[in-house]
Amino acid sequence: MLLEELRKSVLEANLELVRRGLVLYTFGNASGVDREQGLVVIKPSGVDYDELRPEHMVVTDLEGKIVEGKLRPSSDLDTHTLLYREFADIGAVVHTHSEYATSFAQAGMAIPALGTTHADYFYGPVPVTEELTDEAIGGRYVHETGLAIVNRFKGIDPLAVPACLVAGHAPFVWGRTPHDAAHNAVVLEAVARMAYRTLTLEAQCKGVSQALLDRHYFRKHGASATYGQSC
Amino acid sequence: MLLEELRKSVLEANLELVRRGLVLYTFGNASGVDREQGLVVIKPSGVDYDELRPEHMVVTDLEGKIVEGKLRPSSDLDTHTLLYREFADIGAVVHTHSEYATSFAQAGMAIPALGTTHADYFYGPVPVTEELTDEAIGGRYVHETGLAIVNRFKGIDPLAVPACLVAGHAPFVWGRTPHDAAHNAVVLEAVARMAYRTLTLEAQCKGVSQALLDRHYFRKHGASATYGQSC
Amino acid sequence: MLLEELRKSVLEANLELVRRGLVLYTFGNASGVDREQGLVVIKPSGVDYDELRPEHMVVTDLEGKIVEGKLRPSSDLDTHTLLYREFADIGAVVHTHSEYATSFAQAGMAIPALGTTHADYFYGPVPVTEELTDEAIGGRYVHETGLAIVNRFKGIDPLAVPACLVAGHAPFVWGRTPHDAAHNAVVLEAVARMAYRTLTLEAQCKGVSQALLDRHYFRKHGASATYGQSC
Amino acid sequence: MLLEELRKSVLEANLELVRRGLVLYTFGNASGVDREQGLVVIKPSGVDYDELRPEHMVVTDLEGKIVEGKLRPSSDLDTHTLLYREFADIGAVVHTHSEYATSFAQAGMAIPALGTTHADYFYGPVPVTEELTDEAIGGRYVHETGLAIVNRFKGIDPLAVPACLVAGHAPFVWGRTPHDAAHNAVVLEAVARMAYRTLTLEAQCKGVSQALLDRHYFRKHGASATYGQSC
């Protein structure tokens, strides 16, 4: 993907978050990575969405050093770049304070796999990080937020579970492309809404079986996928 | 109904689901059956709703063999066709992941008949299937989903209770026509929203009496219906 | 108010219910009364709201006998006319299945006066009727629904508490004019939403004091009202 | 700020409350203060929002005496003016019955700081006042409402926690400008929605650490702020 295309798709992912009601004012950001060039394209900080143009996107290297752009990048940049360095197969990261996913993050609860909507996108619970220590919060906080995610994902394939809740904060979501990451963020919020209602109806709900999780996840992912028109 | 008319009404039912907010992205499908010709018309899989045209609808026989159409049919086709074979009086099937009905399905709870809105459309609780066994999930899963519904409806008239929740999954809804099936799906979601709130206010709510269920259901259905302008 | 004006204001009240999201499909109706002529103007049954015109309104006498109009009146007519006969000061009645008020009705719970929004409109809890007996349901059901409201209001001034929940069914709301009745129905639903959330946060919430109830209610009503531009 | 500008920004703040869904009918009001001239600009009482023009705004002195304007000022004027007299650094006050914040007020519960969205705007719980005594309610009620807020804020910096819930009533919110006060009211409602869901999922949720509260609050406020494009 050319950098110009990446700028457009990152902008489009940011706008999709707004259209789908995941973002209040400027509380959200999306980025994408060009692996070949080692460049990250990210939304600028605190700019109104309806004024955003592709040329406002900020370009940095994988360490977060600004390469191009006059605006300050999203204040969450260091989380994005750490995820790109640690999760080699992801191509885009989205951060929102979408309300139901954030409510689980605030409660310090993972979103359990309670149904097939979840299983179609997330191969297991959407995990929640440990709380950050006072030292981490007082230090390189944004970087430490990324570290908490990476630590939580030891033993989990980031593309099989493309989202994590940061305890007391909100979700980070990713995917192969900016389009996919935004799509996953929208589905995460729908899954969180349904999990909230399911658990407030039946707190002991134990969720889907491993067999159902496998069936739905592999229906949409991997070599034997049978959903859609693409295969 | 001519096949051409059926295509249009199946498309229209699919669009009604979107307009009423029952469908996120492509998570839903509607079909209709022409009993005389033994043909089923169903939405193609994974196509954006705003691009759908009558000619995109896929036509199959009652065993799900494609008769006409270049696109792959909805991945839930085998559930639809089984319901047509087993429930002789239904003319259309709708499947959505509408969020409140799905939350009950995830909780493994039937939607009890708690009020007259419910009773106007569903003559008794909207039941939930047994959980599918690992063998059923690992086998002809979509067909087995339909079997779980059919098994749950032993002793229930499918036109008196035109919906079923599949445990851990979501609702299937039906009716005499695509219009009716979509309408029933919209009402089911409203009924589920109200049941959720009623039960979270008063978990012991016992619901309407048999007399009230009879009165409301037969007000809109059967020979002595008194609602609307049609009789 | 001339009958022609009343037709228009009854239609307008019906449309306000739709605009404010209180009505799904055709689940609602509003009427108004001309006390001098002894005539009731009511929405016809089961007609789409976007096709409704003033001339579609049905005119009956206070016993529900049709005086003018080609369409069948709302199936709830007998509740409306009974309320007009029994509550001498009301000028309009609205019935909806607005979802939060209906959830309280389904739970068999009155809506307690938990805050000043409630107190501004309803001088005390919005009561819920007794459940109708099987005999009442099997008899003149719609008339009996009105009787249950009237019985519940013994000792309550209908203009001080202009709404009642019918157990297992939904709210009936009234006012001096069709505009006021629709407005009260919209506020009732907002009050019900807030009461639902208050009670699910704090089930033991005891509600406002009599002093606060008095202060807010009489701020908007009666001789010493201080709200708005009209005095 | 010239008085003419203040009228426009007060009107704009009132309209922002409507656009963001915080206001039903006329249940809300915003005001601003010109500290140099000692003048308050406030919405008139009970006027439809879509008819409001800058010239309809009412101008009073800091004691609430009308200086300019033909319309009666908002009935909550005495609360606004008291807050201006007691909280020397605030420039605007907003009052709404936004539904989730009001639900906390009705429950008599502060909104605890459960996450970073809260911490970005409110440096600690959003407090709830004591219930007003019958004497206060029966006396200068609107003034007493302001006093209850002022008493509750002993030891709290009003600009660090720019909102208070009045028990059994609803929130009052403030800021340096009408724009900021309206923005804070919108965020308060989002924070209340998420707190409601968090607490109904996990009633024992203890909220963010002091370190996280500090980090987020000072990220957006004070000399070392790093958010947005302005520094």
Automatic annotation (TrEMBL), chains A, B, C, D:
InterPro entries: Aldolase_class_II_sugar_metab, Aldolase_II/adducin_N, Aldolase_II/adducin_N_sf. One of its GO terms (biological process) is pentose catabolic process. Its cofactor is Zn(2+). Its EC number is 5.1.3.4. The keyword Zinc applies. One of its GO terms (molecular function) is L-ribulose-phosphate 4-epimerase activity. Keywords: Carbohydrate metabolism, Isomerase, Metal-binding, Zinc. One of its GO terms (cellular component) is cytosol. It holds the Pfam family Aldolase_II. Residues 8-196 form the Class II aldolase/adducin N-terminal domain. The keyword Amino-acid biosynthesis does not apply. It catalyses: L-ribulose 5-phosphate = D-xylulose 5-phosphate. Belongs to the aldolase class II family. AraD/FucA subfamily. PANTHER family: FUCULOSE PHOSPHATE ALDOLASE (PTHR22789), L-RIBULOSE-5-PHOSPHATE 4-EPIMERASE SGBE (PTHR22789:SF8). This is L-ribulose-5-phosphate 4-epimerase.
